[in-house]
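User: structure tokens for this one?
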Amino acid sequence: MAFKLETLLKMRINSENALKKEFSEIQNHLISQQKRLQFMEKVTNKTKNNWNEAMSRQVDPSMLEVYNQFFEGIETQKNLQQKIISEVVEKANAKRTILSGAMQKRKTLEILKEKQIREEKERLFKMETAMLDEVATLQWNRK
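Assistant:
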């Protein structure tokens, strides 16, 4: 006897796999955005070291302005990058919630399928036992 909801189970498995793929893409995007922020921080640190070296020497006032503009620009970019990361984290959390719901629905159907298979095995075992009992009774009556 086939599982009545097999088609629905297959649909849920396919849906879950699609959600897993989307979640994976979001996670990869998040990782790349975090790496970009780390790169910005490394560049800022290197530039600060260069700034400190330049301050130990005599500095042209125009260079001070260039460093100042750079630091303001990089801080703006870092703040923008932080916003992007927080948005991606929100999307990842939302997708994780949807994915866990889909996994729970699939698992429910799998449990129902296992229960139906177990009940079918028990029913067949009882039928087989009843038939064997009947055969044994008939053989005993013949003797």
